[in-house]
Structure to design on (487 residues):
């Protein structure tokens, strides 16, 4: 999940339960009955990365038998092992049971990210080992599984988050800062908030007192249905200032269903890059109002390209749904079944045109390098792509750029390094501007997009470094260099 100023992702052990009243309902005299009913379905989650500190310290030197130093160093090593912790502090968060029969639990992805061990603590203090079924970085959601036979689990169901109204009462029940059960109340402050956390931002906002630690906690309506999952707070100081955000259940539910079915997400893909339609753009294209999503470019051989969608088209309707704002299109497309033939209405040359698009798979397109570099890993400027995670800037090979670096070869299949971040590991390993990266993890890096796709795939699979085949200066001096992936 992308970090932004003052938006703090919450990763301590706090479980927040929101309960909203129905339309025009008065504030209840007490929330005690609802809290008592829902608490058993809420869990605390701890995740741990196993680090063997012994590997970080020098090993016992070898001495001749009977050497006086042998006993001294053996005693030193024994004392070191006794007082060195084998594991780092646990990362804490919250979650809730959605399927007691199968032991499924929902939480935030950042709570369990990079974890080697995950443990779930129930309301009655029972602790269970959990396995990670799947996760989704784009919505910051993860699905865990525990043994349903080991204890009596209580579950809750997803509800309809679209029924939430600004001003509805909310109730928060949690464990902020490890203090134990704490209850606060407030209202729903706003809907459809975009905090630049991901491509599908559509947060519910509340003023209920939420502090660090409510990651993965559920939000309920008065029927006991989950309508949101807490993810972030706005806080200049780090404490609660009455602005918290939760992922709506209608966004989370299809993601969780895919994780249960496939162990990963399988989103629909249209194959276009889009931008907002301003009043000036609408007027210049003869559109009566600023609406829809303007197609800036079309991925070659992608679904949109095959359906004859063109750069400059404004997508105003997708599968019968009106596109009022640009940011609503990615979510609608993502939720469309792969392989479905969708009707897309575009505004072109002053009139509406309806085309049929066969929806592709987003994840497959990412793996094949068909999608431009993501902002998480890269930054595109003047035809060059900065790959932040490995500290280098690259560009596609062209006669002009080869001439710039004095490279006479013209049959190069790879990307050329145009800049190396100062003090980066790439710089320390000797990679310089003018070097050609031929392969990454034994896969041809023919374009910057392909290079980033390989690095992203390696990170998702748990790798901490990538192996690059580098031709120094394009002079045939080829060797492998391992570069760590910077978080």
């Amino acid at each position: 999940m992308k970090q932004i100023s003052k938006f703090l992702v919450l990763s301590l052990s706090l479980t927040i339960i929101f309960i909203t009243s129905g339309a025009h309902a008065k504030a209840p005299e007490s929330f005690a009955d609802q809290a008592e009913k829902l608490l058993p379905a809420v869990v605390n989650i701890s995740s741990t990365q196993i680090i063997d500190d012994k590997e970080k310290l020098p090993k016992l030197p070898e001495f001749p038998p009977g050497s006086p130093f042998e006993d001294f160093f053996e005693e030193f090593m024994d004392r070191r092992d006794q007082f060195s912790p084998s594991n780092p502090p646990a990362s804490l968060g919250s979650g809730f049971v959605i399927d007691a029969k199968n032991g499924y639990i929902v939480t935030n992805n950042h709570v369990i990210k990079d974890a080697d061990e995950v443990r779930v603590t129930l309301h009655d203090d029972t602790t269970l080992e959990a396995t990670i079924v799947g996760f989704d970085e784009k919505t910051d959601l993860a699905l865990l599984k525990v043994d349903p036979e080991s204890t009596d689990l209580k579950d809750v169901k997803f509800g309809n988050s679209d029924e939430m109204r600004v001003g509805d009462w909310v109730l928060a029940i949690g464990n902020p800062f490890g203090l134990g059960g704490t209850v606060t109340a407030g209202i729903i402050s706003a809907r459809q908030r975009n905090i630049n956390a991901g491509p599908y931002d559509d947060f519910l906002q509340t003023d209920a007192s939420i502090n660090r630690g409510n990651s993965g906690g559920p939000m309920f309506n008065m029927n006991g249905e989950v309508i949101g999952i807490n993810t972030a707070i706005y806080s200049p100081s780090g404490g609660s200032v009455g602005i918290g955000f939760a992922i709506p259940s209608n966004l989370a539910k299809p993601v969780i269903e895919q994780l249960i079915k496939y162990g990963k997400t399988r989103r629909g893909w249209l194959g276009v890059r889009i931008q907002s339609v301003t009043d000036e753009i609408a007027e210049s294209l003869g559109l009566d109002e600023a609406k829809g999503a303007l197609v800036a470019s079309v991925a070659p051989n992608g679904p949109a390209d095959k359906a004859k969608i063109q750069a400059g088209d404004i997508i105003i309707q997708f599968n019968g749904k009106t596109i009022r704002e640009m940011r609503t299109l990615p979510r609608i497309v993502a939720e469309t079944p792969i392989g479905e033939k969708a009707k897309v209405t575009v505004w072109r040359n002053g009139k509406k045109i309806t085309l049929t698009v066969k929806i592709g798979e987003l994840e497959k397109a990412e793996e094949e390098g068909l999608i431009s570099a993501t902002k998480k890993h890269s930054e595109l400027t003047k035809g060059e792509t900065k790959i932040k995670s490995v500290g280098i800037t690259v560009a596609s090979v062209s006669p002009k750029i080869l001439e710039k670096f004095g490279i006479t070869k013209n049959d190069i299949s790879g990307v050329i390094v145009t800049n190396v971040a100062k003090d980066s590991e790439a710089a320390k390993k000797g990679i310089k501007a003018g070097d050609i990266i031929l392969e990454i993890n034994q896969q041809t890096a023919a374009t910057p997009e392909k290079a980033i796709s390989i690095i992203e795939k390696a990170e998702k699979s748990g790798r901490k470094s990538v192996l690059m085949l580098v031709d120094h200066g394009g002079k045939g001096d080829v060797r492998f260099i391992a570069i760590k992936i910077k978080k």
Notes: The chain is about 20% helix and 35% strand. Residues 273-366 form a domain with the Pdz3 Domain fold (CATH 2.30.42.10). The longest strand covers residues 182-193. Residues 1-24, 373-382 have pLDDT under 50 and may be disordered.
